[in-house]
Design goal:
Structural class: alpha/beta
Strand order of the largest sheet: 6-7-8-3-9-10
Shape: globular
Number of strands: 10
Order of helices and strands: EEEHEEHEHHHHEHEHEE
Strand content: 25-35%
Largest sheet: 6 strands, mixed
Helix content: 25-40%
Radius of gyration: 17 Å
Distance between the termini: 19 Å
Length: 227
């Protein structure tokens, strides 16, 4: 599903965000990316999403060589990938329901089908009552839940999540992880950058630890051993 070989990302003048990253993630895995602020977690996810081009190295994601990915075939790649942004990136001119169902609209689903699926998802996180409101009227935690649902609704092969529970209380954090775990059980590969290491440890997830752009630990699922 994901194969990175000696991937580096250097911003001008010489800011090293990633350095010689080697990483393999198999189809159907649920992996957590951990590390302090500035460790390179968000940059790594953006490289996997194709919004950042590596300065060096090779990256294969969902069967695509990211170095040869063109604007023409980028939409096809994005249909296979759901991204949960740290800053939500919701569409301000659309309702909550329209934001959640936007990936289905792009894929040509009817309005009736989109609305039915979207409302069911909103109900799972307690947001069915705000379906017709605009994102600007929601709290940060509510906007984050909308962003999570938008990434899930089209059943992508890969979900990338950048701190998806950063603005949520413990109960809603569990709800969001339950959604991601359910997607994973259905065969979706999930990669999450998360600061909630206590929850990650309790769930027994494989954890990749980044420090200053380098992988310093790869802890296997349900194990304290580094691989």
């Amino acid at each position: 599903m994901i194969d990175l070989h000696k991937v580096s990302k250097i911003y001008p003048p010489q800011q090293v965000a990633l350095s010689g990253v080697n990483l393999s993630i198999s189809e159907g895995e649920f992996v957590c990316i951990a590390g302090a602020s500035g460790a390179g977690k968000s940059t790594l996810l953006r490289v996997l999403f194709g919004s950042e081009v590596p300065s060096e190295g090779d990256s294969i994601v969902v069967g695509r060589n990211m170095s040869s990915l063109t604007q023409r075939n980028l939409p096809g790649f994005r249909r296979d990938v759901g991204f949960i942004f740290q800053d939500y990136k919701l569409l301000s001119d659309r309702t909550v329901l329209q934001n959640v169902t936007f990936p289905l609209e792009v894929q040509g689903y009817s309005k009736a089908v989109r609305s039915s699926l979207g409302l069911k998802l909103l109900e799972t996180v307690g947001l069915e009552g705000v379906a017709s409101r605009r994102p600007v009227t929601l709290s940060g935690g509510e906007q984050q839940r909308v962003a999570v649902l938008r990434a899930l609704i089209h059943r992508p092969k890969l979900i990338l999540a950048d701190e998806p529970t950063g603005n949520l209380d413990p109960k809603m954090t569990e709800t969001v992880f339950d959604l991601l775990l359910a997607a994973n059980r259905s065969g979706v590969t999930v990669v999450v950058a998360s600061h909630d290491l206590a929850l990650v440890e309790r769930l027994g997830l494989r954890t990749i630890v980044l420090d200053r752009g380098k992988i310093i630990g790869d802890f296997a699922k349900n194990s304290g051993r580094s691989t």
